[in-house]
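User: Reviewer 2 asked us to show a designed sequence for the structure in our supplementary figure. I'm pasting the structure tokens here. Could you produce the per-position amino acids so we can include them in the response letter?
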């Protein structure tokens, strides 16, 4: 067998594999964006409803971990401020989904715009992750080790109910 033919065959295989992978990823991205546009695009959250939801969630948490009144007073502003800080990021994600669908369904594909959107969304995801991590660390410092274990077990049960996805 000619070594050049073998090298060319390998290159061809890897090129086809790379193109197939890229296409599958792009198709998945497009399908995901379209699906979120239908299911997840419920519009902006009413701040009053968000606060009501956070209060209800906290009440359940307090009961489950047997939080002291002092812990409750400390936890409430941490969680409410984090939710308030993260709310605008949710609107940005919804807008990005809409823009992604527009970019991927346009007559001509603007790769530069797609890349800019990707970079923007990585930045937004990083900001949200940092804020969430900060809030989780703050909450964890308020709880006892036993309470943290209770929360961890609850999160584990919640994840299994939702196909292994957190939240």
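Assistant: Here is a per-position design you can include in the supplement:
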């Amino acid at each position: 067998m000619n070594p050049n033919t073998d090298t060319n065959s390998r290159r061809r295989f890897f090129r086809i594999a790379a193109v197939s992978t890229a296409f599958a990823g792009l198709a998945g991205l497009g399908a995901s964006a379209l699906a979120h546009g239908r299911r997840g695009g419920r519009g902006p959250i009413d701040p009053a409803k968000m606060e009501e939801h956070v209060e209800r969630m906290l009440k359940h948490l307090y009961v489950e971990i047997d939080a002291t009144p002092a812990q409750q007073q400390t936890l409430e502003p941490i969680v409410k401020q984090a939710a308030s800080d993260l709310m605008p990021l949710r609107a940005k994600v919804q807008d990005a989904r809409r823009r992604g669908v527009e970019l991927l369904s346009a007559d001509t594909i603007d790769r530069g715009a797609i890349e800019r959107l990707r970079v923007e969304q990585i930045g937004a995801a990083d900001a949200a992750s940092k804020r969430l991590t900060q809030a989780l660390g703050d909450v964890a410092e308020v709880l006892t080790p036993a309470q943290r274990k209770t929360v961890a077990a609850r999160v584990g049960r919640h994840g299994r109910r939702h196909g292994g996805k957190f939240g």
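For the response letter, you might also mention the following. The first helix runs from residue 3 to 39. Residues 5 and 124 are 47 Å apart (CA to CA).
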